[in-house]
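Entry for the shared binder. Reason: the reviewer on the internal report wants the predicted structure included alongside the sequence.
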Amino acid sequence: MGFLKKDKNGRIKRIEHRGDSIRVSRTGGIALRKQIKAKGVNVSLNSAHGLRVSKRIAKGTNLGFQNNRFFIKGRYGKGATKLNLSKTGMSVSTANRFGSFNWIKPNKSSFKLAGIHIRGKEAANYQLIYGFFLVTLFLFRTLTRAFVYLATSAYKLITLPFRITLSVISHIRNRYILSRILKRYNIKTTGDAAAAIYALHLLLLDEKTDSSITSLSKKIDSILDSDSIDVFRRSLACAEPSDPCKIKKDYIVLSIIYFKNTSPNELLDLLLDVDDFFVTSFDRSANQEIAINDSLIACGINIEIKR
């Protein structure tokens, strides 16, 4: 017997059993019934409620007689709130997880919990309590969001001068570093920047000797033009070979200079050419790999160099 049938949300509909010829419920007791449908007319006989004849005359609208009393019922609309039609007039009701509340005729409300179905004034009171809970929860959420928004806005407003000051200081610092690098390596063109990158890449080798530097320098001279060769040799002399961290910082700044005056693809091509040259001619050190990766990241280019 289906006394505890559930709705689509998994909640118990009501405590009752409906069979072909019998209905057993908590409030109505046991009732025998029989229903016949012919040519759109529904005829039902119930031992508790008598004879009922009804017909659907339009979408959502039914009329008929029950024990010689005329009735008309209609329910219209989409969503939770619907317009109701009855013999006594129109009303509006809103459905929720615990039943429905009738705004015009509260005593027509219903309340359902754990299969127990209540109607009338008591149901309206329970619906008002549930509505009060929803309104309270809504106000709490709204006030919480408003407080968070106001607190965030106040924080941003208070810290705005500090953030502007830090931004200005950062901009001045970056401009100073850029001008210092340009002056140190005497960079005037993108070709000069590329030549300086070759020089710093050479100085980032782990196991380098004077002979290996001389040998690689000659190979690099062969792929650079005359102006770039002068920049390459000057960069070797200006850099501090004993400080790899400082060399990597200069390497990144030079990459940014090259990037801003060319394009992401051209910078990527340059660094890959530099890497390929050293892998072919000598080897790739950990510092060289870090310098390339950090330079690409600083310029917003993501790529993985496989060893």
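Summary line for the report: The helical segments are 121-184, 190-203, 210-221, 226-238, 244-261, 264-281, 286-298.
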